[in-house]
Write a structure and sequence with these properties.
The chain contains 2 helices and 5 strands. The chain is of the alpha+beta class. Strands 1-2-3-5-4 form a 5-stranded antiparallel sheet, with helices on one face. The structure holds adenosine monophosphate and zinc ion (ZN).
Length: about 110
């Protein structure tokens, strides 16, 4: 989608620190990390949020990508987050899964 920063990252139109890629997804380091490890996993295809995601194969591919990323990074304790909608903290409207690790994370998150 035009003017979508994450589409541009997926299409390699703008540089990012890619940590993982497969047929359906890419993962890259968050520009403003909230933990020592903060990776974003995105579908290559544009979906504004989880609400628009209607492809079960891609749903499964996204969790597979999360597992491949943590395996690649050698981490076994981490938090995954999908912010959906402004009031939930979503600021980039291309679906993404946060992977956070490397410091104690409080629950509930607030
Ligand atoms: P969210 O608030 O859940 O929509 O998360 C968006 C995330 O994208 C934030 O953690 C930002 O720091 C991150 N972000 C925004 N632009 C970029 C970029 N160009 N490269 C990497 N991460 C980005
Ligand atoms: Zn996009």
């Amino acid at each position: 989608m035009e003017n979508c920063i994450f589409c541009k990252i997926a299409n390699k139109e703008i540089p990012s620190n890619l940590v993982y890629e497969d047929e359906y997804t890419v993962a890259f380091n968050d520009l403003s990390p909230q933990a020592p490890t903060h990776v974003l996993v995105i579908p290559k295809k544009h979906y504004a949020s989880l609400n628009e995601l209607d492809d079960e194969k891609l749903m499964s591919a996204l969790l597979t990508a999360v597992k491949n990323v943590v395996t690649k990074l050698g981490i076994t304790e981490y938090r995954t987050v999908i912010n959906t909608g402004e009031s939930a903290g979503q600021t980039v409207f291309h679906l993404h899964i946060h992977i956070l690790s490397g410091r104690p994370l409080k629950w509930p998150p607030g």
